[in-house]
Amino acid sequence: MSEPQTIAVEFKHVMKSFGAKHVLNDVSFHIDQGQAVCLLGRSGTGKSVTLKLIMALIRPDSGEVWVDQDNVIDMGEKRLSLVRKKLGYLFQDAALFDSLTLYENLALPLARLTKKSKDEIDDAVHRTLTDVGLGADGAKFPSALSGGMRKRAGLARALVLEPKILLADEPSSGLDRITASEIDELLMRRRDEHGTALIIVTHDVHGARRVADRIAVLDKGNLVAFGSVDEVSQSENEVARNLIKE
Amino acid sequence: MRWLSKLFEFVGKVGLFSLRVIVDSFRPPFEFAQFFRQVAEVGNKSLTLIVVSGFALGAVMTLHTRSTLVMFGATAMIPAVQAVSFFVEIGPLVAGLLLAGRVGSGIGAVLANMRASEQIDAIESLSIDSFKFLVVPRVLACVIVLPFLTLFMDFSGLLGGLLSEGLSSHIGPTLYFNRAFDYLQWSNFIAPTLKTTVFGFIIGSVSSYFGYTTDKGAQGVGEAATNSVVLSSLLIIVADVLLIKCIFFLFPDTAI
C-alpha cells in the first residue's frame, strides 16, 4: 500500500472580493506535497490573488486557506511567520529589493526567519545562488541584472529558506523560450529532488504542460477545471479546453 | 460637500498614519540597520544642496541688508542681523523646504515604486513588518538629520555673509563673528533649531504616506513624489507659524 499524500495547500469555499468585483467565488481545491500545479486563466481571474491568499498577504472574505495543516485565516503574525518559513514566493517581476545586493536579498530572510550564524548564512546564500547559476553575481545590485537573471535571483530568494511549498507568479513571463525553459527546469528539479510542492501561475501553456502534475483553470472567479493535462483537455468547460490548447 | 468629506477622510488617514509612526517608533523590534542607512542617505543626499544654498542665500541677503542699513548708518549691525535672521528663521525654514524637495520626493517615489513592483509584498512575505522596516526608519532619519542640516545651513549663511561683507567693507572674520553672535541668545538658537524635528517628522510622514499607500502602479510613483513635496512644503510653512507662536510663548525674550 502506498503512503497517503500529505496535503500542502487546501482552499475550502474561499470567497474574495475587491469592492464590487468578485475575484474568487467559492473556490475549493487541494494540492498534495511534492505535486506541481499550474494555475491558468485569463488576466484578472484571481490567479495572483490565490497565491497571495496562500501567503496570507491578503485575507479572504470567507472560507478557509490551509497551508501544511495550518489554517492561515485569522492567524497572528507570530504563528504566521512560522507558516511563511515553509513557503517561498517568486513574484511576477521578482520583486528584488533594489537597495540591496543579490547576496543581501538572499541573506535577509535567513537572518530574519532563522537562527543561522553568519557563516551558515554565507554558505546557504552561496549554495542557492550557485544552484540558479548566479554564484558569481552576489555583489551585484538588481538593477545590474538582465530579465532572466532577475527571475533566477527571485527564484533563489524564494528557495533560500528551503520551503516545502513554492509559489511562482508567472515565472516565465517576459522571457525568451530558452530562458523560460531554464526556469522551468529549475522548478522541476526542486520538486523532484526536494519534494517541494509547486503552485505556478502562468500563461505559458507549453511550460505548464511540461511542468504540471495538475492544471487548475480559473474563469471569472470560479474554478472551472482541475485535473491532469489530459483531463483538462477533455473538460466540459470551453474556456479550460481553449486555454490548455498549445 | 463631498470634497469636504474627502478632505476630512484624507486628513484622518494621514493623521492615523503619523500616529502609527510614533507608536511603532517605540515598539520593538527596532530596525537600527535601516535607520542608520537612512540617516546616511538623507544626510548625504542633502548636505551639498544645503551648504551651497545657505552660502548663496547668506551672500545675497547681506547685499540686500547692506543697501538698507547703509541709509541709517548702521552697517555695523549687518553681521548681527544676518546671524539672527539665519538662526531664528531662514535656516530652519529653508533647510526644511529644501529637504522636503530633495528627500521628500525621493521617499515618496521609492516607496511607491516598491509598492508597484511588489517589493513591499515581498517584505511582508518574509514576515517582516514593512511599515517598521521602511517607513519608521525614514521618518526618524528625517527627524534626526534635519536639525543638523539646519546648523550647516545657518553657518553656511554666515560664511556667505562674511564673504559678501568682507568684499564690501573689508571686515575681518573675527570681528564679523564677534558682531554676529553679540545679539544671539541661546533661546534664539536652540528652540528654532529643535523645531526642525517637527519639520522632519512632517516630511518623513507625509512622503511615506503617499509612497506607501499608493495603489496606482507606475503612475503612482510620479504622483507620490509630487504630492509629497507639495503637501510637505505647505505643512512646514503652516507648522512654522504655529511653532513660532509656541516659541514666543515659551521664550518671551525671543519675541522682542
Short description, anyone?
The complex is a heterodimer of chains A (246) and B (256). Chain A has helices at 47-54, 77-84, 102-113, 118-131, 147-159, 177-194, 205-211, 229-233, 238-244; strands at 7-18, 21-32, 36-41, 62-67, 70-71, 87-90, 165-169, 197-201, 214-219, 222-227. Chain A is an alpha/beta fold and 246 residues long.
Characterization of the model:
The complex is a heterodimer of chains A (246) and B (256). Chain A is an alpha/beta fold and 246 residues long. Chain A has two domains: 1-86 and 166-246, 3-Layer(aba) Sandwich (Rossmann fold); 92-162, no CATH class. Chain A is 37% helix and 26% strand. A six-stranded mixed beta sheet of chain A has the order 6-7-8-3-9-10, with helices on both faces. In chain A, a hairpin with a 2-residue loop joins β4 (62-67) and β5 (70-71). Chain A is globular and about 55 Å long. The relative contact order of chain A is 0.17. Chain B has one domain (33-255). In chain B, α2 runs parallel beside α5, α3 (78-116) runs parallel beside α7 (186-194) and α5 crosses α8. With 256 residues, chain B is mainly alpha-helical. Classes of the chains: A alpha/beta (246), B mainly alpha (256).
Highlighted features:
heterodimer, A: 246 residues, alpha/beta, Rossmann fold, 2 domains, six-stranded mixed sheet, four-stranded antiparallel sheet, 9 helices, 37% helix, B: 256 residues, mainly alpha, 85% helix, 0% strand, elongated
Low-confidence runs of chain B: none
Rg measurement of chain B, Å: 21 Å
Q: Beta-strand percentage of chain B?
A: under 5%
Shape of chain B: elongated
What's the architecture of the largest domain in chain A in CATH terms? 3-Layer(aba) Sandwich
Strand order of the largest sheet of chain A: 6-7-8-3-9-10
User: What's the count of strands of chain B?
Assistant: 0
Helix-strand topology string of chain B:
HHHHHHHHH
Query: Can you tell me the CATH superfamily of the largest domain in chain A?
Result: P-loop containing nucleotide triphosphate hydrolases
Radius of gyration of chain A: 18 Å
